[in-house]
């Protein structure tokens, strides 16, 4: 089967079943490596999860007690944020400090948020 490709700077940014004059006129086979790569991109990292999801993932990962102990040793503002936040955003300074304290790599943070998002 043939598909029509939209590009930006040589990179495939859209795939269409029909010719779209002025947008996607280049034809490629649907099993072309560029088409397969475009259609099978990994999902973007999860940027935030609810407090419920975050804490359930801590429990599932066996980290809830360790994190609770770390939180208890932090300033009151961090303790309040942990207890009363409705969501946890990975880019927040408290989150970054906590993941560093737990020894997480960037990939482990991605995996943690992805798993939490599914709870």
What does this structure look like?
- The chain folds into two domains: 2-39, no CATH class; 48-117, no CATH class.
- 9% of the residues are buried.
- The longest helix is centred in the last third of the chain and has 12 residues, at 106-117.
- The chain is built from six helices and five strands; from the N terminus they run E-E-E-H-E-H-H-H-E-H-H.
- The strands form two sheets. It has a three-stranded antiparallel beta sheet with strand order 2-1-3, covered by helices on one side. A two-stranded antiparallel ribbon has the order 4-5.
- The chain is an alpha+beta fold and 119 residues long.
- Helices cover 47% and strands 19% of the residues.
- It has helices at 33-39, 51-60, 64-72, 76-84, 93-101, 106-117; strands spanning 2-8, 11-16, 26-29, 48-50, 87-89.
SSE order and pairing:
Elements: E1 2-8, E2 11-16, E3 26-29, H1 33-39, E4 48-50, H2 51-60, H3 64-72, H4 76-84, E5 87-89, H5 93-101, H6 106-117
Antiparallel strand pairs: 1-2, 1-3, 4-5
Q: So how many helices?
A: 6
Structural class by secondary-structure content? alpha+beta
The helicity comes to: 40-55%
Termini, distance in Å? 38 Å
Strand content: 15-25%
Task: Tally the structural domains.
Answer: 2
* E-strand count: 5
| Unreliable runs | none
Average per-residue pLDDT, rounded, comes to 94
**Could you state the oligomeric state of the chains shown?**
single chain
- Strand-and-helix sequence, N→C? EEEHEHHHEHH
Main sheet overview = 3 strands, antiparallel
Whole-angstrom Rg: 21 Å
Strand line-up in the sheet with most strands: 2-1-3
Q: Quick one: overall form?
A: elongated
